[in-house]
Write a structure and sequence with these properties.
638 residues, alpha/beta, 2-enoyl-CoA Hydratase, Chain A, domain 1, Rossmann fold, N-(1-d-carboxylethyl)-l-norvaline Dehydrogenase, domain 2, 3 domains, 12% strand, EC 1.1.1.31, 3-OH-isobutyrate_DH-rel_CS, (3S)-3-hydroxyacyl-CoA dehydrogenase (NAD+) activity, 3-hydroxyisobutyrate dehydrogenase activity
């Protein structure tokens, strides 16, 4: 992405904003890219800390890119802005709560969205050029992105003053107000960044720190505390009018430029949060979102953008006069949102799901139930609850953030991939959950890569029950970036997702795992059949083996003997949880891979032949793969 540079260096994850001509204003795509990076680095043992900085001399980040909000909002479409805010606020909360150090370097203008990005980090560094502010009231909005969380915790009535006047803070002011932590001269930043990257140790910040410059706001604190202590906007306006100081006149002039409704709402928000028990950033963001959700439709936000950004006439026509904001209008802005309450859920995605069979249908239904928009296609015409049925695979793929496939074999996967990849957006992810040969997985990865589409091979373990219950295990091959994109979906559909390596690694892990499963199930069934003929009860057999060296998943979790151990398909007449036909398919894939890799797998070969006989020559087709037990118990040595 040209607006942002995300990479790992040494022991650090690095995020650099790279649109200095736009004062590094934060776009929606930049927010999503930053969130994906911090999610990816959270559990990466090679990343000890994150360094967050920006190119250019003028600004770290001068706010959010609001042009698209204006374009959509003026047509009556408020959904774009609401989704942007939901996703941005979720990122703000993640930054504040992040388990690893995040070091932000805040130079030049740090305004609005820039505060939301750099102001909630664990180590916030400022310098001589820092000019930090929350200027939202000037465009008919309110301090957001967690700004009210910082304002409510500022000393005395400084939060009211900063939030209502949009006053700039110097480095010393920012530290005094609690918006920053450490002053480091800007000419020492490169050396500090190098030390942090090379060592992953934030102790270098203390060594580089210098005494904070003077804080003019600290000297003004007594006046601020006295003049901004009013309960409502009219109280503060009256106190400023009655005070003959230059400070009062300047503050009153600043209030006069800003949207009166925004001023009144900002004041009420700060008061509520300061009085809140156990204040957290999430409480502040939830309150802010009540306003964000309504501001385009019922506030001055669109008019403020018009006057400041679009027409640039600097003459906004606010809804109310400075001292005549109805209390009911403030209350309406801050009413709870009910079903629209900010819940910090991962971003709702547009998902295409191709292959709605016994596994695919419940997986797709779980994604839809979690709030994602799912379009589904199956050649048999089947669908799933909450999934919008479409007529073609290409239609399911068009406009999707992630396309999921659950298909019978590699040949069909190749055909479907060739059909849909040209319809997928650049940067979207093709997530194949089928169990296919490694060669097909890698061939599809090449097709996707050529089209600038991410790709993951992610076969599953857990059967139909796991698909329905959202407890599948995913074995995933592909890039770390694609894995990070799909991770929220894995968390809905399953209990575990293991990133196994490059493309094809997921399929390799699946066929190796299932070769073990096929072999151990046969061994478990053979042991039960032998125990029967030796006069050992199945209960005794289970009690001994399940707690000794014969322990295995086939014995302990999926016991093939009915009435013994946890409930399993054996207790339901061997109706398939995992069909013998599918086990035969997976074993054949394992032997195909073994042949290609020149690997000696004698037990895998033997298991393949036993399941082939059971499925193709006997009555095993349509039964669970553990039905090998009744087959063996009827047979003798010959």
């Amino acid at each position: 992405m040209s607006d942002i540079h995300i990479r790992t260096e040494g022991h650090a994850g690095r995020i650099t904003l790279t649109r200095p001509k736009a004062l590094n204003a934060l776009s929606y795509d930049m927010c999503l890219a930053i969130e994906a990076a911090v999610d990816r680095w959270r559990d990466d043992p090679n990343v000890a800390l994150i360094v967050l900085d920006a190119d250019g001399d003028r600004a770290f980040c001068a706010g959010g890119d609001i042009a698209e909000m204006y374009a959509t909002g003026t047509t009556g479409d408020y959904a774009y802005g609401r989704q942007f805010w939901r996703d941005e606020y979720r990122l703000n909360a993640k930054l504040d709560e992040y388990p690893k150090p995040i070091v932000s370097f805040l130079h030049g203008f740090v305004m609005g969205g820039g505060v939301g990005l750099g102001g909630h980090c664990s180590h916030r560094i400022v310098c001589e050029s820092t000019q930090l502010s929350m200027p939202e009231v000037g465009i008919g909005f309110v301090p957001d992105v967690g700004g009210t969380y910082l304002l409510a915790r500022a000393p005395g009535r400084l939060g009211e003053y900063l939030g209502m006047t949009a006053a700039h803070m110097s480095a010393g002011d920012a530290i005094h107000a609690g918006f920053a932590d450490t002053f480091v001269p800007q000419d020492a930043w490169d050396a500090l960044k190098t030390a942090l990257i090379e060592t992953g140790d934030v102790a270098h910040i203390t060594a580089a720190a210098r005494p904070a410059p003077a804080a003019p706001l600290a000297a003004l604190q007594p006046q601020i505390d006295r003049l901004f202590a009013g309960e409502g906007l009219s109280d503060i306006v009256n106190m400023l009018r009655q005070d003959d100081s230059d400070f009062a006149a300047t503050a009153l002039k600043a209030l006069g430029r800003n949207a009166p409704l925004s001023l009144a709402v900002t004041l009420e928000m700060i008061h509520r949060l300061r009085g809140s028990t156990g204040l957290t950033i999430r409480k502040a963001l939830e309150l802010e979102y009540r306003v964000s959700h309504r501001i385009m439709e019922h506030g001055d936000f669109l008019e403020g953008i018009r006057a400041a950004i679009i027409d640039k006439d600097r003459s906004p026509k606010w809804r109310h006069a400075l001292d005549k904001v109805p209390a009911v209008e403030v209350s309406k802005m801050l009413m709870p949102l009910g079903k629209d309450t900010l819940d910090f859920r991962e971003r709702a995605m547009n998902i295409g799901f191709i292959g709605l069979g016994n596994m695919g249908a419940p997986m797709a239904a779980n994604l839809a139930a979690a709030g994602h928009a799912v379009k589904g296609f199956d050649v048999a015409g089947t669908t799933a609850e909450g999934v919008t049925q479409v007529a073609t695979a290409a239609e399911a793929a068009t406009g999707a953030d992630v396309v999921i496939t659950m298909l019978p074999n590699g040949e069909i996967l190749r055909s479907v991939a060739a059909d849909i990849i040209s319809h997928m957006s650049k940067g979207a992810v093709l997530l194949d959950c089928s169990t296919v040969d490694v060669g097909s997985a890698r061939a599809v990865a090449e097709l996707a890569s050529a089209a600038d589409v991410g790709v993951l091979d992610a076969p599953v373990s857990g059967g139909i029950g796991g698909a329905a219950g959202g407890t599948l295990t995913f074995m995933v091959g592909g890039s770390p970036e694609a894995f990070a994109t799909a991770k929220p979906l894995f968390d809905i559909m399953g209990q575990k997702a293991v990133h196994c390596g490059a493309s094809g690694s997921g399929q390799a892990a699946k066929i190796c795992n299932n070769m073990i499963l096929g072999v151990t199930m046969i061994a478990t069934c053979e042991a039960f059949a032998l125990a029967d003929k030796l006069g050992l009860s199945r209960e005794a057999m289970f009690d001994v083996v399940s707690t000794s060296s014969g322990y295995s998943w086939s014995m302990n979790a999926y016991c093939p003997a009915p009435g013994v151990g946890p409930q399993s398909p054996a207790d339901n007449g061997y109706l398939p949880g995992f069909a013998a036909d599918l086990m035969l398919k997976d074993l054949r894939l394992s032997q195909q891979a073994a042949e290609a890799a020149d690997a000696d797998t004698p037990l895998g070969q033997a298991a393949t032949e036993l399941y082939r006989t059971f499925v193709e020559d006997e009555d095993g087709s349509g039964k669970d793969f553990s039905a090998m037990l009744p087959r063996l118990e009827k047979r003798g040595r010959g």
